[in-house]
Amino acid sequence: DVKVTQSSRYLVKRTGEKVFLECVQDMDHENMFWYRQDPGLGLRLIYFSYDVKMKEKGDIPEGYSVSREKKERFSLILESASTNQTSMYLCASSPPTGARYFGPGTRLTVT
Amino acid sequence: GENVEQHPSTLSVQEGDSAVIKCTYSDSASNYFPWYKQELGKRPQLIIDIRSNVGEKKDQRIAVTLNKTAKHFSLHITETQPEDSAVYFCAASIGPNTDKLIFGTGTRLQVFP
């Protein structure tokens, strides 16, 4: 059974802080993703990675960066958190078939 | 850019009735169409997917149909049960590559006993 875990379920940060969200998968998947989920907007892709040290921008990369130093770990970084980044963040991994296996999500509040 | 439209945004049905959720997509090269179910407070989970070389796929009470000409696909749930209550998301690949999916905005399904 695929397991995707995220470092925090809930996080509260102040404006301007640097924020790290971490994701780990245990199925040796090449592809990993970071999505943002907001009511009425569905799931929007921030960044994805198809291999270690490889990354590609998604639909809404502004204000975010990512790091993938090991195959099983994909980190999302908010360099300077802003209130409009308050959201639910979902990590996912995927085998070549394309199915996404999601983590439990991190609800980030920036005050 | 490419987009996926999903309707309706909310759907209420009586237990035992059928529910249908529809999505349209814009990229004629899309060839992978998954559906995800997200229960309250939980992560989205894949419930069924279809590829462009088939027109219909069924798994017990759920089925997905695809009309490539019209560029739309639908999720059908028969004999609905209260545990079907959730938010459902459709998605379509951008082009033939499944690396990128565009998700619909979701449908909140409520099944009343």
Secondary structure layout:
The complex is a heterodimer of chains A (111) and B (113).
Chain A: E1 4-6, E2 10-13, E3 19-25, E4 31-38, E5 42-51, E6 54-57, E7 64-70, E8 73-78, E9 87-94, E10 101-102, E11 106-110
Parallel strand pairs in A: 2-11
Antiparallel strand pairs in A: 1-3, 3-8, 4-5, 4-9, 5-6, 7-8, 9-10, 9-11
Chain B: E1 4-7, E2 10-14, E3 19-25, E4 32-38, E5 45-51, E6 56-59, E7 62-67, E8 72-77, E9 86-94, E10 97-103, E11 107-112
Parallel strand pairs in B: 2-11
Antiparallel strand pairs in B: 1-3, 3-8, 4-5, 4-9, 6-7, 7-8, 9-10, 9-11
Structure at a glance:
The complex is a heterodimer of chains A (111) and B (113). Chain A is an all-beta fold and 111 residues long.
Structural notes for this entry:
The complex is a heterodimer of chains A (about 110) and B (about 110). With about 110 residues, chain A is mainly beta. Chain A contains no helices and eleven strands. Chain B is mainly β and about 110 residues long. Chain B is about 0% helix and about 60% strand. Chain B has strands at about 5, 10-15, 20-25, 30-40, 45-50, 55-60, 60-65, 70-75, 85-95, 95-105, 105-110. In chain B, the strands form two sheets. In chain B, strands 2, 4, 5, 9, 10 and 11 form a six-stranded mixed β-sheet that branches. Chain B is globular and about 40 Å long. Classes of the chains: A mainly beta (about 110), B mainly beta (about 110). The interface between A and B is medium-sized, with 24 and 24 residues.
Summary tags:
heterodimer, A: 111 residues, mainly beta, 11 strands, 58% strand, B: mainly beta, 60% strand
